[in-house]
Amino acid sequence: HSVELRIPPYGAVQCVAGLNHRRGTPPNVIELSPEDFLDLCLGELGWDAAVVSGKLIASGTLTDELSQIFPLEL
Q1: Mean pLDDT of 22-32
Q2: How far apart are alpha carbons 2 and 27 in whole angstroms?
């Protein structure tokens, strides 16, 4: 019940409230490049545009919850 955010090769973190996932591929995964992650955080790239273009790969039902926090408020 958590979402794993992957920014290869730098790391992965479990986000969104839920149970920790410890082994194998979790059911809810978001993956994107470091550059696209920064663009998403800054609002230079929108969530939907990132998904449509293939820059952001999201699988699982909980990944939409993470879409609500972008862009980050500074």
Answers
A1: 78
A2: 8
